[in-house]
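Title: Comparing notes on inverse folding

I've been comparing how different people in this forum approach sequence design from structure. To keep things fair, I'm posting one structure and asking everyone to reply with a full sequence. Here's the target:
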């Protein structure tokens, strides 16, 4: 094309020009993540973490709801299922770590930990 010639503004030319321009990226936001409230998992608490009772899913969900709401407010974002899921698994992981500490199996290998946890209270052979 001759530099003195004017380029035609056909729909194809306009479309190609639009695709060649890079979109501007929005600046990345820094999000604030609050610390988990895990004090209730400590020994001598009413809800101490242990394998001798069922995992308190209801309690984990309540903690999750509170922190997901706080996260959304502090970061001025909408609460999402992804936030709840993230925090639920963070709390579950923290609970299981607390169980290992509270039940004294943190530094045991798998076989010893299982023997320590699965301590039969009833003998199937009575007589």
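Reply #1:
Here's my take.
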């Amino acid at each position: 094309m001759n530099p003195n010639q004017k380029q035609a503004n056909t729909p194809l030319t306009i479309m190609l020009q639009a695709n060649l321009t890079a979109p501007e990226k929005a600046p990345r936001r820094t999000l604030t993540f609050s610390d988990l409230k895990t004090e209730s998992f400590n020994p001598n608490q009413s809800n101490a973490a242990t394998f001798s009772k069922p995992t308190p899913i209801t309690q984990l969900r309540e903690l999750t709801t509170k922190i997901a709401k706080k996260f959304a407010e502090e970061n001025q974002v909408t609460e999402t299922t992804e936030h709840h899921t993230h925090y639920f698994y963070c709390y579950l992981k923290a609970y299981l770590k607390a169980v290992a500490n509270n039940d004294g199996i943190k530094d045991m290998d798998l076989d010893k930990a299982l023997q320590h946890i699965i301590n039969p209270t009833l003998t199937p052979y009575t007589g």
